[in-house]
Amino acid sequence: MRILFCTDSYPPQVNGVSVVTALSVEGLRARGWDCEVVAPRYPAGTGPADQQVIADDPRTTSLPSAPLPCYREIRLALPRRDVVRHVVDRFTPDLIHASTEFVIGRLGASIGARRGIPLCTSYHTDFAKYTDAYGVGFLRERVRASIARFHQGAERIYTPSESAKADLLALGLRDIEVWGRGVDTVLFNPGRRSLVARERIHVGHGFTFLYVGRLAPEKHVPLLLAAFASLARSMPEGTVRLIVAGAGPSTSELRERAGPSVSFLGTLDRQRELPALYASADAFVFASTTETLGLVVLEAMASGLPVIATPAGGVAELLRDEQNGLAFAPGDVAACAAQMRRLVEDRALVCRLREGAITTAREHSWEAELDRLDASYREVLTRPRAR
After folding, report:
1. What ranges do the domains of the chain cover?
2. Which of 164, 165, 356, 375 has its CA 20 to 30 A from that of 152?
């Protein structure tokens, strides 16, 4: 079986879409699939070294790309229809999976339709909700309509949460499978905790909160900084720390806002640095309300971290208040700070939530998700074409 992934985000760029797509390719190859990828070309030095290796796979065709002016970490591929058409005609895939709704995803879907190749798509990101975060809420309905048009031609749509599935059903779309809520519990686990890692980030014996993710408006990181600042002001110096791992267009602004007990680490090597960082922190904090999954939340739980988060979107399906973490309402700085304080002052609560977090992560094995994807693709290929 041959499958072609067409994606506008792939390693060495690091985000939820690129990680899930790369893991899918690796897992399907291990299950006997012949996989090729069309993705943007990234400049040298983009992302950590381990992700560069994936991007250099000879079975990946890269299209020239340019940075998005307001968000330079995102690359927009040039619409080289001729290159994508050549890949399709040479590789002759049995199935095309368009992982994103942008240039490469749309080219793959369009060319595949002309060749009569079955199409699957992914809905990873609620771009309609992003319009509010970027001050263009008036475009929300137009974005929703564009998303609906893109996915209408798919034999099956994959999305990682029930809430995201409900959004797609509301757009009139059908054959939607909840898939992708997986975490590698071998890579991310409490056994990665390291005193050396804590010393390297200079947290000492302080209670260490961690945020991992893009530094962009839709992630609401300023709320976390404000909540942490409120907590830190009421405690002796060195009692608490906040570590921020990630990059994005808000980096400079966030650094200016942050106090002396906040450290920014940038983008880390996913295989060698990130697992130890998760496991060496004491709790994870997350304020986004637009996640279809929140992969970093699962990774934190697998690493044994209680999670303080807003129960919205896909995160609401993972976060169990008082069982594996603590919830706070959207935009509520005081409530977030209060939940942080509870963990700092109640180590028994931390231990109980740690166990709950680990249990939740074990319920979401990535290997089981890949088995489901393998079976789902095969079912799509053997049934009569719906469209």
Report:
1. 2-182+366-382, 190-362
2. 375
Q: Cα–chain-centroid distance for residue 158?
A: 14
Please check whether the domain covering 2-182+366-382 is classified as CATH 3.40.50.2000: yes
Helices H / strands E in the chain, number of each: 15, 15
Sequence-distant (≥ 6) Cβ neighbours of residue 355 within 8 angstroms: none
pLDDT in tens, the chain (387 residues): 999 999 999 999 888 899 999 999 999 999 999 999 999 999 876 666 555 556 678 999 999 999 877 667 778 899 999 999 999 999 999 999 999 999 999 999 999 999 999 999 999 887 766 767 677 777 778 888 899 999 999 999 999 999 899 999 999 999 999 998 899 999 999 999 887 778 777 777 899 999 999 999 999 999 999 999 999 999 998 899 999 999 999 999 999 999 999 999 999 988 889 999 999 999 999 999 989 888 999 999 999 999 999 999 999 999 999 999 999 999 999 999 999 999 999 999 999 999 999 999 999 989 999 999 999 999 999 987 655
User: Which residues, 6+ apart, have CB-to-CB distance to 65 below 8 Å?
Assistant: 40, 41, 42, 75, 76, 77, 78
Residue burial 321-356, b: 16+ Cβ < 10 Å; e: rest: eeebbbbbeeeebebbbbbbbebbeeeeebeebbeb
The three-state secondary structure class of 96 is strand
| Exposure of 168 in the CB half-sphere (CA atoms within 13 A) | 29
- Could you check whether 2-182+366-382 and 190-362 share the same CATH topology? yes
What SS3 class is residue 262?
Answer: strand
| Nearest alpha-carbon partner for 382 in 99, 104, 118, 73 | 118
Q: Give the largest CA-CA distance in the chain.
A: 67
Q: Are 243 and 208 a contacting pair, CB within 8 Å?
A: yes
